[in-house]
Amino acid sequence: MAEKKGQMFRFRAVDKAIWEDLVKLFESRGGPSYCWCMVWRPKPVGASKWPKNERKRMLRAQLHDLVSNGVPVGIIAYHEQTPVGWCSVAPRSTFKKLGGPENGEEDENRIWSITCFFVKRAYRGRGLFSGLLDAAVSTARDRDARVIEAYPVDGDSPSYRFMGFVESFRNAGFVEVGRAGSRRYVMRLSV
Question: Which helix (H) or strand (E) element contains residue 153?
Fold first, then answer.
């Protein structure tokens, strides 16, 4: 649990027991139901044109497969009993290529990636992003991550803003190790 600017938030790794909370959050006004956080996850050819209910089904299937092996797909933030925020975090091996450094000596399962954030509008500006980031780092560390990787953008970027901003990750101790395309930075935290 974390207290941020007068609001009490609690964070929980997504498992099968709280799938309905994830659905409630994603399908809430402004929620990411258009993508179901499947942008960076492996999916069949042509899946990008599938309707959102199919992306929802794909995330649920991945949730089932990963959680059965003790691996979360992300973190949900709660205010009281209401889901109000999301952060996608999982081993890098469970995502498509994100642009981070690749070196045959690294164990892909010990490098975790943070790929997406969503905070309900009413809870923005209350420190919830930092709480989600801290919870994601703790979750990865508790599951034996050696490195946590993120792919944020500059604050004035016109795209990929859902991946977070460089300054927030710098403030959390992440360091830049490269670029992924023209907008995304690759930042790492050793744990």
Answer: none
Say how many C-beta atoms besides its own lie within 10 A of residue 167's C-beta: 11
The C-alpha atoms of residue 46 and residue 56 are separated, in whole angstroms, by 15
**Dihedral pair phi/psi, residue 114, rounded to 5°:** -105, 115
Burial of 109 (0-12, 13-18, 19+ CB in 10 A): middle
What amino acid occupies position 179? R
Structure-token pair, residue 36: 């179901």
Q: Is the C-alpha dihedral spanning 98, 100, 105, 106 positive or negative?
A: negative
Give the integer Cα–Cα distance in Å for 33 and 25.
9
- pTM: predicted TM-score of the whole model, two decimal places: 0.86
- Tell me: the pLDDT tens digits for 76-109? 999 999 999 999 999 998 888 888 777 666 777 7
Tokens standing for 65? 């497969």
In the numeric block, which tokens belong to residue 180? 């992924």
In sequence order, the 6+-apart residues with CB closer than 8 A to the CB of 87 are 74, 75, 77, 114, 116, 117, 132, 133, 135, 136
